[in-house]
Amino acid sequence: MIVAGARPNFMKIAPIASELDRLGINNTFVHTGQHYDQSMSDNFFEELNIKPPDFNLNVGSDTHARQTAKIMEAFEPIVTELKPSFLVVVGDVNSTLATALTAIKLGIKVAHVEAGLRSFDKTMPEEINRIVVDHISDILYAPSHDGVINLQNEGLIDKSELVGNVMVDTLTQHIESARNRPIVSKIADGNYGLLTLHRPSNVDDKKVLTNLIETVSEISKTLKIIFPCHPRTKDKIREFDLPTTFKVIDPVSYLDSIALQASAKVVLTDSGGMQEESTILGVPCLTLRNNTERPITVTEGTNFIVGNDKSKILSTFFDVISKDFKATMPYMWDGQASKRIVLSLISKLR
Ligand code: UD1
């Protein structure tokens, strides 16, 4: 059984589900409904050829406790009835935590894909989800060495396997179609930076969000900025009545996001996945956070951690904009991670 619930899950489960299907392995797909807008969910199914979910729990948005509880309550009867050999969960969203916790208490083996990532910042809800899911799961599939080291430090090495990054599988499968998308020529003339912002720590506080919007406005005097805006951020910009002097558009689909990143001069983001995608594409990335759970994108990739300090963001921006960067592929980021995961699951079944 595979679970996905929120936008950053869909590109991670797609290659695993398709590998299971290719090998004729019976699998059930559950969508929790944590994300439900066309632009946050359905578009990904169409573009990534993900089969329609066998079950949709339709939980929608709520507080952390209520959303997690609703997922657990709706998921329990399904997992009880189907008793899968394994539950495969990906990433660090509330759907990951809720379904892993439900299954493990029912004696179902849980495999966590993207295990071992740590920002060491427990103010991030995702960090709490990562720690709990890793500690309760039976099999931990780490995307990179740093993840394995974190798992070792937490006494979890016996359950861990380094398999590479499933995001790379999806990106390499779809990069050609992404490059053919008209979005870049339609809304940008090839000379632009791409902004995304949705972390509660960046958007929920008026002072912090105002400072970030002002900083990007400053950048937009030099380089046109395109801002596909998450619904949470859109609400906050409206609530705080913040003027934006750059182009704000609706959230974009997976292929459009890759197309926009691939042709951007710079990516400014607080997303985890985009730190990885920009590294693979060789585009400089300014991470608008004080830490990252993906340090390999800094040590081996194109990522710069700039926080939300205006002068640091501006100086790094002017520094990177004139430089050439090359795409880098950390160890095992070779497009074969989902194959390794499925082979590993099969060997455990036997
Ligand atoms: C969630 C994940 C985060 C991930 C992000 C990607 C958790 C704890 N957080 O954060 O790790 O980076 O997804 O987007 O699981 N909303 C809509 N339409 C939707 C979904 C959400 O309008 O389809 C709005 C609602 O107002 C909702 C808010 O966005 O309250 C936040 O959604 P939620 O799923 O709670 O968290 P994200 O901020 O999206």
What report would you give on this structure?
It is built from 16 helices and 13 strands. It is of the alpha/beta class. It has two domains: 2-165 and 333-349, Rossmann fold (3-Layer(aba) Sandwich); 176-320, Glycogen Phosphorylase B (Rossmann fold), CATH 3.40.50.2000. A six-stranded parallel sheet has the order 10-9-8-11-12-13, sandwiched between helices. Strand 1, helix 1 (7-22) and strand 2 form a beta-alpha-beta unit. The longest helix has 19 residues, at 64-82. The chain is globular. The model has no long low-confidence stretch (mean pLDDT 96). Bound molecules: uridine-diphosphate-N-acetylglucosamine.
Question: In a few lines, what is going on in this structure?
Answer:
The protein contains 16 helices and 13 strands. The chain has 350 residues and is α/β, with parallel strands linked by helices. Helix 1 (7-22) packs across helix 7 (166-179) and helix 7 (166-179) packs across helix 12 (254-263).
